[in-house]
Amino acid sequence: MKKILMIILTAAMALSFAACSNSGASSAQVADNAQNTSQINSNTENKDQQSAAVSDTDSSAENNNSSEGGKILVAYFSATNNTEGVAQKLADGLGADIYEIIPEQPYTDEDLDYNDSGSRSSVEMNDPSARPAISGTIENMEQYDVVLIGYPIWWGEAPRIMSTFIESYDFSGKTLAAFCTSASSGFGSSDQALRSAASGATWLEGERFSASASLEDILAWANSLGVK
Ligand SMILES: Cc1cc2nc3c(=O)[nH]c(=O)nc-3n(C[C@H](O)[C@H](O)[C@H](O)COP(=O)(O)O)c2cc1C
Fold it and tell me: Do residues 139 and 168 make contact, with C-beta atoms less than 8 angstroms apart?
């Protein structure tokens, strides 16, 4: 079954990347190597573990983002930078604070190899109770009214580290919405585990973006939520 899923995913990714001419050098390389999907992450950089921080929290101008929805935080995890690009556009466009969810143990290319059922990501995604540790915390989560949560789709779901994140804070009374990037999968029910873990929050409809999504498209989603 898993083998079939991998074949489907591989084919879908190849098609998706081939169709997407504007998604940067990393994606182009993947298209060239579509037969060897283990190379999907070969052109990516590992994250700087020291960079975990909420940005812009000291700028009153940046923090004056309290449109109808209140003060906004964009929190994201990105293993190969696609979601990061979308998160940055979203935060810039909204004048929101931004926070990167950085794993205590960074994901290597081998960790991300979905062709290997023994890879770290495969093992984690096969275990709904897996909770990869996050480096650092947000100390002032209470100041945010709206939290927009970004992640890559892994096997149709949010990576388990997103569950670590959502279970680390009290989101009761806040408004939450998730966004994701993927090779081809839609948003689906990828935020289901997160919704269950933060059931005291008001969840708005999530959205899937391509790695090369425009600022316009990204803000159109924020607009549709009423947070912009
Ligand atoms: C372990 C793993 C599983 C993935 N599963 C899917 C999937 O089910 N569907 C899909 O369209 N893309 C899948 N992808 C591709 C990623 O969702 C896509 O490349 C995403 O944009 C990566 O975002 P990032 O650069 O922020 O990590 C998977 C990637 C990895 C590493």
Answer: no
The whole-number pLDDT of residue 8 equals 52
Which ligand 1 atom minimizes the distance to the CA of 112? 31
Residue identified by tokens 């995913």 is 9
Mean pLDDT of the chain: 80
* DSSP single-letter state for residue 180: E
Query: How confident is the model over 209-226, as pLDDT tens digits?
Result: 999 999 999 999 999 999
In tens, the pLDDT along 32-54 reads 222 222 222 323 334 443 334 57
For residue 222, how far is its CA from the centre of ligand 1 (angstroms)?
22
Domains and CATH numbers, the chain: 47-225 (3.40.50.360)
Predicted structure pTM score: 0.79
Asked if residues 72 and 148 have their Cβ atoms less than 8 Å apart, the reply is yes
Angle at which helices 82-94 and 215-225 pack, to 10 degrees?
Answer: 60
What backbone torsions phi and psi does residue 147 show, to the nearest 5 degrees?
-125, 120
CB 158 less than 6 A from any atom of ligand 1: no
Encoding tokens for residue 69?
């929805």
